[in-house]
Amino acid sequence: MSRIVIIGAGIVGLSVARAALKRGHDVIVLEQGPAPNPQAASFDNHRMIRYPYGSAAGYTRMVTEAFSAWDRLWSDLGTAHFENTGAIAISLEAGDYAQKTLDTFKAVGLPHEVLSRDGVEALCPHLSLPAHAWGVVSFPGGPLFAGRIVTELAQWVRDHGGIIEHDCRVARVDLETGIAVRADASEVAGDLLLVAAGAWLPALLPERYGKASVYRQGLCYVEPPAQYEQSWREAPAIAAIGDHTGYTLPDRRGAGLKIGYSAHRRLARPETDGFGSDLESESRAILGAFKPYFRDFEAYRPTRIQVGYYVLDASRRFEVVQTGRGLVVTNCDGQMFKFGPLLGERILGMFAGEQSASDLAHWAAGY
Ligand SMILES: Cc1cc2nc3c(=O)[nH]c(=O)nc-3n(C[C@H](O)[C@H](O)[C@H](O)COP(=O)(O)OP(=O)(O)OC[C@H]3O[C@@H](n4cnc5c(N)ncnc54)[C@H](O)[C@@H]3O)c2cc1C
């Protein structure tokens, strides 16, 4: 039996904690806020899991593995916090995200359906698309109810003997020796020290990650016009409209309809820029991108902005780096939630010698 020390009670840290407990290890999770922390990237009403992934064939294939890992989590929790609405990518021009997705689906042999513009509008009557638009739909896909997942996962970890120290900020780490130093200067040593600090990683390890690009992203919850409430609820999650007009998550299980615009993000740091938002201006910036495509656009009523932060590297590849007893997970981008439980299992597989750290890093990078 080994001792696994984990910094961060987001989806990555908690998934590693669960995988470690299932293999009989001692687990200590150190979390600077409440556990789970509503400011963590992992905390929102929903996050999307979907096959449409542009030209990223490795990550497209990984989604199948991810669904199996979620199924194992659902059986531990006794509930599936997921709705299989399907996910659609909508093409507006040659070579865009949907086109790349379709090419990838064909290359990896993934089942899908291609819809004409009229077919997309029949499925999504709240959309009004140009005549040349088309869509590609795949199942399974849809909302993972993120806040409920991390809340129940944290409870599962506690119920199975894991220790979660909340309101416990780690001030320093020594990756080589696996030692984490709490803000009160007390130390805890792990045979494996997992750093899953999300957007706070540059603050924790400034020498190594001080220059990492941390982005702030706001997502907008909206009430749609009454005549489209039901169609929004029943439609697939939208993974992309064209190349730059973001994504939507349907209002299932009371989670609300949420709209994201991928270009609406900026370099910022959670510890200095905070979590505030001006609903009027920020909702305008997010929703404005959808004006050409939402029927009765003016009738949408923004209700709140959810602010989150993540590290995004130009490679768009997750990074899992081993140094001595330390393992750092970063570059989680706006993408890691769906892979959290799978990554947790893989990390413990690596720790047990089933896979080398370099093979794990290669796999996590989506090759
Ligand atoms: C707006 C937004 C939309 C997204 N949409 C999707 C999506 O649709 N689908 C998808 O798959 N992914 C999505 N993502 C990405 C996904 O949410 C993240 O990649 C994932 O949640 C990262 O998990 P994590 O555990 O690494 O980090 P986090 O969830 O951020 O957890 C890190 C934890 O570490 C704690 N911590 C940090 N520093 C310290 C310290 N020094 N001491 C103690 N504790 C510390 C923090 O308090 C936090 O709780 C989105 C992200 C954002 C922000």
UniProtKB/TrEMBL annotation:
Q: Which cofactor does it need?
A: FAD
What domain of life does the UniProt record list for this protein's source? Answer: Bacteria
Name of the featured protein = Glycine/D-amino acid oxidase-like deaminating enzyme
Signal peptide region: none
Q: Which GO terms describe its molecular function?
A: flavin adenine dinucleotide binding; sarcosine oxidase activity
Alphabetical UniProt keywords: FAD, Flavoprotein, Oxidoreductase
Q: Name one Pfam family in it.
A: DAO
Q: Does the keyword Membrane apply?
A: no
Q: Give the matching InterPro entries.
A: FAD-dep_OxRdtase (IPR006076), FAD/NAD-bd_sf (IPR036188), MTOX (IPR045170)
Q: Which Gene3D superfamilies match?
A: D-Amino Acid Oxidase, subunit A, domain 2, FAD/NAD(P)-binding domain
- Name all FAD dependent oxidoreductase domain ranges: 3-346
Instruction: Please report the organism this UniProt entry assigns to the protein.
Output: Bosea psychrotolerans
